[in-house]
Amino acid sequence: MLTGSQEGLTRNPDKWLMYSAEPGFMIALATLRADLGPDALDCLSGYAVLLVKPEGWIEGILTRLLRFLADSEFEIVQTFRSELSAVAMHELWRYSWNVGPIERIELSELLLSLGPAYGFLLKDRQNCGTWASTRLAGMKGHSKPDQQRPGQLRYELRTPSRVMSYVHVPDEPADMVRDISLLVDRQEMVRLIARCSDTSGSPCDIRPADFDDVSYVDRSLFYESRSSVTASSLMRQIRAVREIFASYRLDGNRYGIPPALWQEVRALAAAVSEMPTTGTKLIQPLAEIMS
């Protein structure tokens, strides 16, 4: 059974049992309440978080994403930058990656390492009585393209496979706290959550130039596919492609990627997406429950 304070964060008692066993999540809650006050998390009901993953930036989805958010009455009030370590990736998706297969996890690690991700803190202008995070997560659509419908986020972004999903959206306020605590340091986490209670702040003016450190497809680069790579197992293909990417790393954690190499990655993602899962996700994503 959930207590009153927990009901403001999740409606899933099983999720709460799992999260409350995580030291990092409980420290994040304690930090926010100590720094911002005991009622600091009450404001989360009107806000959502959306993370644009590295492959989303490579695919140039920003214009389509901004159009979707505006049409859905979500307003960007803050942005944040994150570079995910392998440990952070495993923690963030530990309750869904448990179904594997291993090749999907390996390829997801590669995609998430291709430069920084950027997150958007969103204010829900609709104010319909549903938690903003839950409303947005419900609009995301299924991870499988053939089960997506017009008007859903993944459909409008044209996600090509369940591995290349472009964005991540936490389902509930509890997920927002947990995810933010894994994506940024504690000081930044407090700053972002404090922004949710700042009713006087104005929305962000988002411009592509604000994200000039993300990876991109460089159409001036030539890449010739290696037949020895494409003829090997999917796991070996993934590891070979990871090594190839090292040649195209620019400053920081940013890549200029030849179009032919990126098409090879897209094909690899499609093949891995067709592999069967093993078991049931420990926490079923809201978008898939509602699809």
Task: Outline the structure in words.
- The chain is α+β, with helices and mostly antiparallel strands.
- The chain folds into 2 domains: 12-200, Alpha-Beta Plaits (2-Layer Sandwich); 216-273, no CATH class.
- It has 15 helices and 6 strands.
- It has helices at 4-7, 13-19, 23-36, 54-58, 62-71, 86-92, 102-112, 132-138, 153-157, 173-183, 186-196, 227-230, 234-245, 259-273, 286-290, and strands spanning 47-52, 74-82, 117-124, 167-168, 216-217, 256-257.
- A 4-stranded antiparallel beta sheet has the order 2-3-1-4, with helices on both faces. A two-stranded parallel sheet has the order 5-6.
- The longest helix is centred in the C-terminal third of the chain and has 15 residues, at 259-273.
- The radius of gyration is 19 Å and the shape is globular.
- It starts with a helix and ends with a helix.
Layout of helices and strands:
Elements: H1 4-7, H2 13-19, H3 23-36, E1 47-52, H4 54-58, H5 62-71, E2 74-82, H6 86-92, H7 102-112, E3 117-124, H8 132-138, H9 153-157, E4 167-168, H10 173-183, H11 186-196, E5 216-217, H12 227-230, H13 234-245, E6 256-257, H14 259-273, H15 286-290
Parallel strand pairs: 5-6
Antiparallel strand pairs: 1-3, 1-4, 2-3
